[in-house]
Amino acid sequence: MLKKAINYIPITIVFVLLATGCKNYQATVTQAQLNLPDTFAGKADTTTIATIPIRQFFPDQQLVSLIDSALRANPDVLSTLQRVEIARANLRLNASRLLPQISGAANGGVEKYGDFTQNGVGNYDTNLSPNINGNQRIPNPVPNYFLGFQSSWEVDLWGKLNNRKKAAFARFLASQSGYKLLITTLTSQIAGNYYQLMALDAEMAILRKNIGLQNRALEIVKIQKEGGRATELAVQQFEAQLKRTKGLQFNVSQQIRETQNQLNFLLGNYTGNIKRDTSIIIEKLPDVLKAGVPSQMLLNRPDIRAAEYELIAMNADIKAARASFLPTLTLTPYVGYNSFKAGLLFDPGSFTWGILGGLTAPIFNRAALKADLNRTIAESKVALYGYQKTILNGFQEVSNHLGGIENYQKAYDYKQQELESLNKALSVANDLYLVGRANYLEIITAQRSVLDAELELAQTKRNIFLSAVNLYQSVGGGWK
């Protein structure tokens, strides 16, 4: 009975290992609960600008040319392409682990057996046997030569290796989405800086025009002073206003320099003049500015797609980590020539082959595997929250930029009306001043109001363009 019970011990151990492993191998996935609103702030457009290519969205060909140049030379773009290649290589590595690992082997060694060892006595006794010939006698020390192929193959019984491949594939797709995200971001940055540069050009033109007007006003008040119709105080007030406007000119000049340098940086250049022909005041907005429905964001925004793929990868990692608790079957076959004499290595009698199968299961390292599993589950939750945050952030961005286009456009219309009224007021003030019915402070105030309104008009038009560009980015456009 005792002998019979002992025979069941190995089988019992195997079942215990399987049971303890299966206890931890339970399907667990992290899924996002999405409750997106049906529309963006009540706007139920069914079309989206995200599908419009860059060349069609931006009517300014100078801008399109800058974007094309940046996509070829921007350092971040080139680096991100290499990250895609890294992810591709990692995918191939994990896919290869599903197949047997075969390697060529050429081994040689020597071993001296003691006279009172099992091999030493056995070899001595073998050499005395009449059943062997001279080539089969075992020397002491014993050389050992092997030339052939060796292999190791972990049989993917529980899907561990396949899930690692799935995780690598998801991260490869995430890296591609990361590249698309960079293209979208870079496009938006270049367009934003381009329109900023055009707005600064408009501000510079406004300042130069007003410097000319203020110069003429200063000359008039100087003549009036000589004729006794104005005082030195009026002259100094007009001169102070002129100097203020000239000072603003240099501030704008510095902003133009910095914006050009930023564009050159994005283009991968050290320096260079940025070509731009049109004024932002007459620049045309894209014909179509529609965000579409919120669910389209999930398909078009590269950052949301990247976060989604990372969540898929983490779920695959969890399954792979759980499979680590289960027994692993490894096969190690070999084939080749093996001999203890170099001259007989390629003799047909030296041909050999074999296969060894081993079943291993974790026992004392289960705590480490459990810690790794808990870490992976926690990381998957981080990926889930990141995914949900990305969607929430994307929705808010679209809503803000849609409102920005509408509100800035209304502000621009009112600013135009305000500027028209201020120009009329300045004209009236000049006429009244010439006939002595208005003082110089009213002229100065009217001139400053017109200058400020013209500068604000250019800035408001810039904000409209920036909102349009940011909307294009926030719905996932710019990379197709």
Concise description?
The chain is an alpha+beta fold. It is built from 12 helices and 6 strands. It folds into 2 domains: 26-98 and 158-326 and 375-474, Outer membrane efflux proteins (OEP); 105-155 and 329-360, Outer membrane efflux proteins (OEP).
Model description:
It is a single chain. By secondary structure, the protein is of the alpha+beta class. The protein folds into two domains: 26-98 and 158-326 and 375-474, Outer membrane efflux proteins (OEP), CATH 1.20.1600; 105-155 and 329-360, Outer membrane efflux proteins (OEP). Helices cover 64% and strands 9% of the residues. The protein has twelve helices and six strands. It has helices spanning 2-7, 9-24, 54-57, 61-73, 75-96, 118-127, 160-226, 232-267, 294-300, 302-323, 366-434, 440-474, and strands spanning 101-111, 142-155, 328-331, 334-339, 351-354, 357-360. Strands 1, 2, 3, 4, 5 and 6 form a six-stranded antiparallel beta sheet that branches. The longest helix is centred in the C-terminal third of the chain and has 69 residues, at 366-434. The radius of gyration is 40 Å and the shape is elongated. The model is unreliable at 1-6 and 15-19 (pLDDT under 50).
